[in-house]
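To: structure subgroup
Subject: Chain for Friday's discussion

All,

I'm putting the inputs and outputs inline so they're searchable in the archive.
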Amino acid sequence: MTPTVAPATDQQPRATLGILGGGQLAQMLALAALPLGVRVKVLEPDPYAPARLCADHLHAPYTDPAGLEELTKCDAVTLEFENVPVEALDTLRGRVPVRPGAALLERSKHRAREKLALREAGAQTAAFVVIESAPELQGALRAVGGRGILKTSELGYDGKGQARVASDFELGQAWEALGSVPCVLEGFVEFGREVSLAVARAPSGQVAFGPLVENVHRDGILRTSVYPANVPDGTEAQARNIARAVAENWKLEGLLTLEFFLLPGGPDQQPQLLVNEVAPRVHNSGHLTQDSGGLSQFEAQVRAVLGLPLSDWRPLHPCAMVNYVGVEEVAPDWAGIDALEGTRIHLYHKAFRKGRKLGHVNLIAPDGATLRKRLSQLEALIP
């Protein structure tokens, strides 16, 4: 298939950024790149890809030779999802900088490798056991504390490809239900809160951080994110130290988001952070940085990948994000949402499908009390 490309303008771009993937994250990366004078090309097989509205859409499979050839003409290539075909990375290797690189992607797309690499970098995780064959089910649940979550080593996200288990029988049933594929059994963690923090690292080695954000999930999919996070003093500094260690140990070039479980500490103990998941890209929980007055996570990734000047990005106001996920075909009350003070709607131009992320709404307020009040009103309007 020959990719189609929109005609170039006469004005020379400051740089050209290629993106593997053309979904909503690529769309928002492109929108952040354009004001910087950066032109964006996305390689994406979906003819209705959201990013086609604001970037040159190379409409072809990720492994298409002509499409990949177009990406080699860019100054650098980044991604909006982890599971990039190995063949695509092999074709690009040595011809254009791919940031994050193949070695980091190999870790982050495979849960077992990811957790081992996190521990090597000094980060703590929940107890886990790798299960790749039926005999390894024996004693696995006991080894992680008697309760756990079985997750496929690859491809699972947003609550997919996983099951909670509390007995050896349930573990066996879950493993078969997941297709008897390689899995990771994680010990169940009684956490106090879920928080996330992103780190960006430029090819020069410069490191910058996003804000610590508090998250709430529903049915395995992020529902709300709030800044500032309601956490004990010192938590953000601890999260930054972990993020820096991982970014430098993994030789990150680009942006990486870490999701943490915050465990309550004892009377004289500092709360403990366990790394739960890692995403080598911008993340749903960072969407609130778009409208909060400072640098956004999207501009941070563009800057890090292209080696442009980089700094910490932190909201200037209390803010929140509510995800709009396909629950029912009746649309939310957009007029009512628009009328709420402090809201900003972001729709992805995607057809409805149950469980699909269709958009999000950002919210800002002058103080925490006002933010909580407005957030309650907003959530009532989004199923």
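Points worth raising on Friday:
Residues 187 and 327 are 30 Å apart (CA to CA).
The radius of gyration is 21 Å.

D.
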